[in-house]
Automatic annotation (TrEMBL):
The active site is at E321. It is an enzyme of class 3 (hydrolase). Residues 25-150 form the Beta-hexosaminidase bacterial type N-terminal domain. This is beta-N-acetylhexosaminidase. Keywords: Glycosidase, Hydrolase, Signal.
């Protein structure tokens, strides 16, 4: 019965697409769009994709794929010196960080121009959505005239994939990148280490993956519980992402969430009275000892290899959910260090711990990112857990505490990335009873509409200049394969993309509900799993 219901909705989408000439599929909504009167541009086999130079070759090939998929036409690529009724891609500046673009469709010419190849790439994604949304014209190889001038609200627009709890092979990570760039996401954070697994090869310490990457204690085959990325595989992912203008940020969570590394190096553990053998995937609530110098030395070696491998200027070091009261509070060495340093609370040792770790990060010419922790897990909280240095970018994540993080970072000068649990935790169920067998620890429901309501600046009370952007998180305790990854990510990932890209004055829920329809239909055609938003489908949506 459920399969028939999904099929009927898909057929409804197909009817909508064929019945409406101007159905918009633009997600995220551009910040300026002007439809124009006049004849359409007609694409023929003689139409060429003309680029200014070879730096736009990948973008031109991306556009080739679009026309092959949408119109069945194979267009040739030419470099410069071509005039006529063609499609022109121009990168006219030198600043690759600029993401703005202009798209003009005229009867005798289509032009996508930008300061950078990145901007051209985003213009191509928008053109692809114009073809997707205007099904009748596309079926006749026509593109209606339009002018768009567009650029993002925030520079950082990302997803976090937790590949530590459940491992994803390289091919699945690439598929995820292919999907996210359609909606102008530009950052993928890989959560590579946690209690349940160590997923990155460190050549100086091969035992980290020989032991830390396998939960079945037998070194079994790669699967959701087992596996790791070699450095060559990570280079492949990084290069693949870079072509598509996606930055890969590595995350190595410390000092908590470290059972996998502590199973390999038990000498880094706190010497607490109730210490037991650490088992990967079973032991939690353990931490690196703040007073043990060997831990800092090992992580200096680890971070040196990670910094050399990842071109990203940033390294995420976690810093969240440190169970201080069960570790540093009970560790005689940590308590001695606390007294020596004149600290009042055991949590103050985070200043010492990250003081040493961040020194290494800075020496490696990297910028640190940490999860923002406050002095209470819920309100009333009123300050940071410890004194974050101003060069640390903080990520707000605890549900209900993001407005306070927003205020505190505005005062302290720390850059801020918005990932509030109530809006951006995409592992949360999407409606009541959604996959109950996998969401059984009381996670709150985050509906598509709830995610769409997210304003990263929270109305602008504390400004937004210090806000880098938005991060959607996919923690994988209950996400065991790629189909479930995309099921949890979409369609809420479409809402989050618009929150990150589009200014608030151009966003409306009623418009968004209509615009996601053809995008979800395209995902279905591509074999991408997603959650069908039954609750918003009605005759209104397809009017």
């Amino acid at each position: 019965m459920k399969i028939l219901t999904i099929l009927s909705i898909c057929l409804m989408w197909m009817g909508c697409l064929s019945a409406q000439q101007n159905l918009s599929a633009l997600v995220p909504m551009p910040n300026y769009i002007e439809t124009q009167e006049g004849k359409a541009f007609v694409v023929t086999e003689k139409t060429q994709i003309v680029i200014t130079d070879a730096s736009l070759q990948f973008e031109a090939e991306e556009l080739q794929r679009v026309f092959k998929a949408q119109m069945g036409l194979e267009l040739n690529i030419q470099t410069g010196g071509v005039k006529g009724k063609h499609i022109y891609l121009k990168a006219e500046g030198q600043n690759e960080s600029l993401e703005h673009y202009q798209l003009q469709v005229q009867p005798k010419r289509i032009e996508i121009s930008a300061e950078s190849s990145k901007g051209v790439f985003y213009g191509i994604q928008t053109l692809a959505q114009l073809l997707l949304g205007d099904a009748e014209n596309t079926a006749h190889n026509r593109i209606a005239p339009v002018v768009l001038e567009d650029g993002p609200r925030f520079a950082f627009r990302g997803f976090m994939l937790d590949v530590a709890r459940h491992f994803l092979p390289v091919s699945d990570v690439k598929r995820f990148i292919d999907l996210m760039v359609r909606y102008k996401y530009n950052v993928l954070q890989l959560h590579l280490t946690d209690d349940q697994g160590w997923r990155i090869e460190i050549k100086k310490y091969p035992q980290l993956t020989k032991v830390g990457a396998f939960r079945d204690e037998k070194g079994g085959d790669q699967g959701p519980d087992n596996g790791f990325y070699t450095q060559e595989q990570l280079k492949d992912i990084i290069d693949y992402a870079a072509e598509r203008h996606v930055e890969i940020i590595p995350e190595l969570d410390i000092p908590g969430h470290t059972a996998a590394v502590l199973a390999v190096f038990p000498e880094m553990l706190c010497q607490r009275p109730d210490t037991v053998e650490v088992k990967i995937g079973k032991t939690t609530d353990v931490m690196m000892c703040a007073s043990n110098e060997c831990g800092y030395e090992i992580y200096r070696d680890i971070l040196t290899e990670v910094a050399a491998l990842f071109p990203s200027p940033s390294i995420h070091l976690g810093g969240d959910e440190a169970v201080i009261e069960k570790n540093w509070e009970k560790c005689s060495s940590c308590q001695t260090l606390k007294e020596k340093l004149g600290y009042q609370k055991s949590s103050d040792l985070m200043n010492h711990f990250f003081g040493k770790i961040l020194t290494t990060v800075r020496e490696l010419k990297k910028e640190p990112i940490l999860w923002c922790e406050l002095n209470n897990l819920w309100m009333p909280a009123d300050s940071y857990l410890f004194n974050y240095p101003k060069d640390v970018t903080l990520v707000s994540w605890r549900a209900g505490l993001t407005p306070l993080c927003h205020e505190l970072t505005q005062k302290s000068g720390n850059p801020l990335i918005m990932a509030p649990g109530e809006y951006a935790y995409l592992d949360y169920p999407q409606y009541k009873g959604d996959l109950p067998e996998y969401n059984n620890w009381g996670m709150p429901i985050t509906t598509l509409e709830k995610t769409y309501e997210f304003d990263p600046a929270y109305g602008g009370k504390f400004g937004e200049k210090h806000i880098k952007g938005v991060l959607g998180t996919l923690w994988s305790e209950a996400i065991k394969d790629f189909n479930r990854v995309t099921y949890m990510a979409y369609p809420r990932g479409l809402a989050l993309a618009e929150a990150a890209w589009t200014q608030m004055e151009h966003r409306t829920w009623d418009s968004f509900k209509q615009r996601i329809c053809p995008n979800l239909y395209q995902m279905m055609k591509d074999g991408i799993s997603f959650r069908v938003p039954f609750e918003i489908f009605s005759s209104y949506v397809c009017n």
